[in-house]
Amino acid sequence: MKLILAALAAALVAGAAVAEQLPPKRVFESPDLNGPRARGVKLAPDGRSVTYIKVRADDLTVTDLWIADVAGGEPRMLIDGKMLAPETRELSEAEKARRERAGVATRGVVDYAWDDQGKVILAPIEGDLWLYELDKGQARQLTRTPGDEIDAKVSPKGRYVSYVRDDNLYVTPVAGGPERALTEGGSELSSWGAAEFIAQEEMDRHTGYWWSPDEARIAVAHVDQSGVDVVERPEVGATGAKVVPQRYPRVGRPNAVVTLYVQDVATGARTQVDLGADPDIYLARVDWSKDGRTLYVQRQSRDQRRLDLIAVDPATGRGRTILTETSPHWVELTDDFKPLKDGTFLWSSERSGFRHLYLYAADGRLIRQVTRGAWPVDALEGVDEARGLAIFAATKEAPIERRLYSVSYRQPAEPRVLTPDIGWWTAEVAKTGGAFVGTFENPRTPPRTALYRADGSRVRWIEENRLAEGHPFWPYVERLRVPVYGTIEAEGGETLWYSLRTPPGFDPARKYPVIVQVYGGPGSARVTRGWQNPEDQILLDAGYILFRLDNRGTPHRSVAFKTAIDRRLGQLEVDDQLAGVRYLKTLPYVDADRIGVTGWSYGGYMTLLLLTAPDSPFKAGVAGAPVTDWTLYDTHYTERFMGTPKDNAQGYEASEVVRRLPRLKDGSLLLIHGMADDNVTFDHSTRVMFDLQARGTAFETMVYPGLRHRGGWTPTNRLHRAMQTLDFFDRKLK
Question: What is the pTM of this model?
């Protein structure tokens, strides 16, 4: 411990020179303090160029489409999102919900798709579709309708554009001509081609239709929501309020019934896919084989303890289960299934205790395990079939570092690291050849994107985003606080990773207040060796130490670590966060009487749990959009970890917030919620407000008219939320 403290103190004192303080307002102004970042990066099918979405330097709320030639030269704008996006158009509820699920916070070019021939780029812009033709060097408007075209795609051979509008699936010729409806009679309760709420929000499936490789057929989902409960939620805006009757499948209640069909594009003939006798299942994933002769369907059981891979004959709709994954806890969904040209396929499984890759024959017979070891694969990013390589991301060296690797799937081999720089890597891998666009970041390096060869050598920068003179953050670089990373031991002996940042001008002889930034829920880690959000600088400049800890249940670890929370949300996570506070109290520069906590969503839930823990060490907390009762949340997320209230009554009772509120200290809580939240609905917070008012407990609250869980947050109201948080902590911890 003495050696750790000595190293920690040395790291904290180093670079403690103080520069001009970052004005909080500047954090939310243009240009983005993170610098120019490439988002939605895609390699052109011919490998000659790279396209990406970039926020405008003069407006953080608008994104444009850019292109960079592999051969060199400066990147150039292809589609000006500000010029083409109408200021006044009101998006449909379906498109608003889709953007909310995808976390889209800008307008302009927010998504796009190449055709497989590399001739055109399809871009939906504020409800209509635009087609950029590479040979002509210009964009033309493809649709101009009152309704919004959503989930638009270019067919594999580039002859059609497909999209969903008003709950039906349409196609229109790329070369021009009238659109054609492939389905009819769609409605909110009986829709075609769109992913249902649960698929978008919790299953990371954002489409409801899939083209065959020869574009002769489309697999299309039909969603029947008639049995889903109507949750009447208030949606309060700046100028009025309305009650929205939302179809929201709450835990233990009916889900939408999803059926799957294969439709002939030319004739319209439709064949139903046999998904089994039980309609109460999840349509998890749909893929075509490379030759289009087999449709692969992943079917997940309602309790999520079983996942079947079904090989379907598209001509008859009949299928056979060729692979099954089971777990006493839950089977996670991934995008790691990759059909190969020879009929074999790659698949990931956690059966060994860590997520690893496996190669299977077409009939589901295991050929070999491809990766192995006491570390997890994070994602299968791509395949180089010519060389027989799987390209994957993993937290192999440490759970706080993500790198890219390649490994042979044809014969036993050790993975080869493609990205040696230590930090956090994401990648988009070419469909052939193994080249990739990689984005790298670490605490001293904002996200920078380059094109790399299959061996990991860099071809060219796409967005170098070098932190040097001229970079938006450069005037404040001396105030940049690099986290100190370390580990502590949980009560059960597990290793927990933390990060700690100190204020500019830190003096280890003084005592400082601490703010614990918590999420704590499954599926998201807060402790990574990546670039830190400039918004945190507001709290650092105000003199706070910032501390994060990833408790049991968070990702990038073993199956045992992730599933320790099974059927008992809000218990071990709290124990681990309290262990983190006990560690903080051993540090000589931490003021043990001035510790606060804050978090959003699951982090808001954790904030309430930590404030109401017996003998809570927290003096104050800011809880944003918190879940407060899991019976009010959705099926797929909640039942994965908790089962249903019927079969886990004790777990649900122990996880509920209101029963703990008698332990909340007067004046210790600031509660924040958007008044149009359709994910963690507003009644999660009103239950807390009502109970605290009834018992006379003082607390503070700030609500945001018209804002949802993620969507609609502008730079202005993000600044307001940040300053409310700072003001509250200043009054409570200083």
Answer: 0.94
